[in-house]
Amino acid sequence: MSFWYENHVIAKLLAWLLFPLSLAFWFISFIRRSLYRLNLLKSYRPSVPVLIVGNLSVGGNGKTPVTIWLVQQFQQQGIKCGVISRGYGSRAEQYPYLVKTDDNPTISGDEPLLIAQRTGAPVCISPNRQQAIELLLAQFDCDLIISDDGLQHYKLQRDFEIVVIDGERIFGNGFVMPSGPLRELPSRLEEVDLIINNGKSTAYSNTLMRLVPKFAVNLLSGERKLLTEFQSIPLNAIAGIGYPQRFFKMLQDLALSLETTQGFQDHQDFNATHFAKFPQNQPLFMTEKDAVKCRPFAQKNWWYVPVEADIQGENVAPFMQAVLQKIKEKK
């Protein structure tokens, strides 16, 4: 909700009006987590290490690029990763569901499909994380399970936790839902193993992720062009991600001229009518996550911009080494 990140009087009033509900949300969350910690509620411990990539706030903070980066880094070390996801927006006939790289994104969900296509790692989606892990371990030789989201899913025991923070919006007004965007209070950060800032440094960590674009890819032909080739051409852009402005700003920072931009809700289920207003004689740019859903009705001048995560910070190497050591101990 936009008022979570605004500072005017109406936004503050809305936040305080909803504050009793936020207190109830926090109390229920606190009791639930305490019950798991005291083993009064049953949790699941897999036979291989589990690494959670999550966040404290609602909305897109950049977890999926981090997940892809982690899988690729571990693959370079000879580690076989399996990825689980709730599969938000998916419509598989049954769960757990193993994602195929040629899946329709309406079946698998956009982010799980993107992870599978970019990494080649086995990806399983299910609201029941235990079932997803058990299916992966039954069909693949996995050394490590990486969970894309699930920080607050305490039914799943974990060995490592990463929290991704949006460096632009951080934690908004600082309230828990529904007064604000937080699922848990910032004090939860004291317990996690690595905090990654997406885009800008924050007071919580010196580990910084930059999403680096290098080229644009045509949705129909697969042709690749350097982004500099578009600098003298008027462009349009759409983004169906948690924070569309991040994508638009990235393009503008590359000296690209955006005539029209339109943000959609995260995990937007696109169809051709969403693009009727854009002139066909101008290139239309979108994220790679959007592109997996738009190929069936794409036009010849539609392009997506893949990004590579560049994660730097003094805590990154020790964290990666700790995970590798845990994997070695479990074997």
Could you explain how this protein is built, in words?
The chain is an alpha/beta fold and 331 residues long. It folds into 2 domains: 9-79 and 143-209 and 310-330, no CATH class; 215-305. The protein has 9 helices and 15 strands. It has helices at residues 9-17, 19-37, 63-76, 105-108, 110-119, 129-139, 244-253, 288-294, 316-330, and strands at residues 50-54, 81-85, 97-98, 123-125, 144-148, 160-166, 194-198, 208-213, 215-218, 224-226, 234-239, 257-263, 284-287, 302-305, 307-312. The protein has a 9-stranded mixed sheet with strand order 3-4-2-5-1-6-7-8-15, sandwiched between helices. A 6-stranded mixed sheet has the order 10-9-14-13-11-12. Helix 7 (244-253) links the parallel strand 11 (234-239) and strand 12. Helix 3 runs parallel beside helix 5. The mean pLDDT is 95.
Itemize the secondary structure elements and their pairings.
Elements lengths: L8 H9 L1 H19 L12 E5 L8 H14 L4 E5 L11 E2 L6 H4 L1 H10 L3 E3 L3 H11 L4 E5 L11 E7 L27 E5 L9 E6 L1 E4 L5 E3 L7 E6 L4 H10 L3 E7 L20 E4 H7 L7 E4 L1 E6 L3 H15 L1
Parallel strand pairs: 1-5, 1-6, 2-4, 2-5, 6-7, 7-8, 11-12, 11-13, 13-14
Antiparallel strand pairs: 3-4, 8-15, 9-10, 9-14
Rg from alpha-carbon coordinates:
20 Å
Number of helices: 9
* Oligomeric nature of the chains: single chain
Largest sheet: 9 strands, mixed
| Average of per-residue pLDDT values | 95
Fraction of residues in helix: 25-40%
Low-confidence stretches: none
List how many beta strands DSSP finds: 15
Strand order of the largest sheet: 3-4-2-5-1-6-7-8-15
Shape: globular
Report the β-strand fraction as a percent range: 15-25%
The tally of domains stands at 2
Distance between the termini: 45 Å
Protein structure class: alpha/beta
- Listing every helix as H and every strand as E from the N terminus to the C terminus, the arrangement reads HHEHEEHHEHEEEEEEEHEEHEEH
